[in-house]
Amino acid sequence: MNDFGLVSIITPSYNCAGFIGETIASIQAQTYRNWELIITDDCSTDNSTQVIESYCRQDSRIKLLRLDSNSGAGAARNNSIRAARGRFIAFCDSDDRWTPDKLQLLRLHLLPSRRQRQKRQRLKRSRALRIRR
Asked: I want to staple 98 with a disulfide (CB 3.0 to 4.6 A). Which of 25, 64, 102, 125 is the partner?
């Protein structure tokens, strides 16, 4: 499988202790392995952060950030985006589950194949020739 660069997966969390583990497990099961998961907790009142921290200790690709005050999912996403290091950003809510090939399928839509690149080059050359005439 080709490596197309680091993918930063952005997940906001708020009182999701009952299901965030399944979300994280679905990301860990990805066939494309070059990813980081950045979770920003929005002042959960349950044990969400403890559940997430247990995954952080097991997998260095998972990072937990915390907001100082409850600010909503948008602020949590933006906080994670600021910490992202990836070439691409993907969003996964705390109650979502991904199929194991999700990132690999995204790659097919985001990056052109060799054949597509060659076709694009031929098209650029033919346009350049028309402009010069």
From this structure: 102
CA distance 87 to 35: 10
The set of residues, in sequence order, having a beta carbon less than 8 Å from that of 78 and lying 6+ positions away, is: none
Strands (E), the chain: 7-13, 35-41, 62-66, 88-91
* Whether 80 contacts 65, CB under 8 Å: yes
Cβ within 8 Å of residue 18, ≥6 positions away:
46
- The token pair at 15 is 């009182």
How far is residue 23 from each of residues 97, 121, 128, measured CA to CA in Å? 5, 40, 49
Nearest by Cα to 51 from 10, 87, 15, 82: 15
pLDDT of residue 133: 53
**47 secondary structure, DSSP code:** S
The pTM of this model reads: 0.83
Q: pLDDT of 92-131, one tens digit each?
A: 999 999 999 999 888 877 776 667 666 667 766 766 666 6
Cα–Cα distance measured from residue 90 to residue 80, given in angstroms and rounded to the nearest whole number: 11
CA angle 36, 42, 45 (to 5 degrees): 120
